[in-house]
Amino acid sequence: MEYRKMIKFGNSSFVISLPKDWIDQHNLKKGDPVYLDMSNNGEILLTPKLTEIKKEKKSITIDINNKDIFHIQREITAAYINNYHNIVITGDDLSEKSLGIRDIINNLVALEIMEQTSKRITAKDFLDMDNISITNIVRKVDMILRSMMYDLKTMHEEGKKVDEVFNSRDRDINRLTFLALRTIRYGIDDTNFIKKNKLMPHYLLELYDIVKLVEKIGDEVKRIARLVEKSREDVKTEKQKEAVRKIFELFTQIENVYVNAMKSYYKKDRSIAFEIAKKRSMIKNKIEDWEDQETVFKQQQLLMQRLQMMLTYVHDISRISYQ
Q: CA-to-CA distance for 308 and 313, rounded, in angstroms?
């Protein structure tokens, strides 16, 4: 092992010399860039250049014989997340399932059907993965979820139906979630992507957890919306209406905790995350106390359970910030 002494350079920088053998080995000259990777344990990895990796365009064939549409959806989605460039779907009864398969493909960003026959569909991916920002995708998913939370309260106040309010937003969250998971997988497999975007492997794992939690919260918001819609016929008395108002007060409190949880993550502010832990306990106690009281309308207990799950997922986001 060799060592080098640091030399002060200017008011705020230090320089070290590099071994000549290493420079000659990598054909470096004055002005060439070198790349530094800093790990959490204090080590610095020095590399001479970003190695150009020839990216193989992977293909996969999915046989759909004797499979229902949900099984087919899982296989196509898995192929997309695992960065298959060409996805070929074959089956004797393809024509009967083609509409469902087209919907699945259309729900995946930049995956297009290039060819279709009675027994074969070929889909091609047009994504340029090297120019995708995983951070921007996560922020977009976050903003859509915030819109869903706002829409839930509006839906309740204006008496709208779930499908006319949530379908497009739910679809957008799913599309972006799959894209985020694909980008994370791509980054884990491609060190150049990590270096180019100045990411650390543990950051990608954090983003994976964040994306999955935001998706789960979105699912809970939609479930709450459906329960609220079902409860309209049952909620007639003032006591029942007051119970619904309390539920929306709790929902708004959880919504505010979610906003702060994402803020703590974006800003890497552990103090906000610790404060969220306190608020979570307070809201959790309110929910549990109210669950022990009289049920005044049919969907009340189910709504409280959904709020509990939503609060748990929000708290899990804040834990990522302080762990």
A: 9
pLDDT per residue over 133-190, tens digit each? 999 999 999 999 999 999 999 998 888 888 888 888 889 999 999 999 999 999 888 8
Tell me the CATH number for domain 59-127. 3.30.1370
Residues 6+ apart with CB under 8 A from 120: 88, 89, 90, 94
Strand, helix or coil for residue 61:
strand
Return d(Cα 83, Cα 78) in angstroms, integer: 9
Distance CA 221, CA 55 (A): 40
**Per-residue tokens: 91:** 């089956």
40: pLDDT confidence band, cut at 50, 70 and 90? low
For the chain, the structural domain boundaries read: 7-47, 59-127, 131-322
How far apart CA 116 and CA 122 sit, in angstroms, is: 6
Residue 294 makes CB contacts below 8 A (sequence gap 6+) with none
Contact 163, 227 (CB under 8 A): no
Q: How many CA atoms lie within 13 A of 86 on its CB side?
A: 12
Angle (CA) 315 319 323, round 5°:
170
CATH class entry, domain 131-322: mainly alpha
Beta bridge partners of 123: 87, 113
User: In this structure, which amino acid lies at residue 129?
Assistant: M
What's the pTM value of the predicted model, to 2 decimals? 0.81
Q: How far apart are the first and last CA of the chain?
A: 35
Task: With a cut of 80, say whether residue 3 has pLDDT above it.
Answer: no
Residue 215 has a CB neighbour count (10 Å cut-off) of: 20
> Do the beta carbons of residue 314 and residue 280 sit within 8 Å?
yes
**Contact yes or no for 120/88 (Cβ under 8 A):** yes
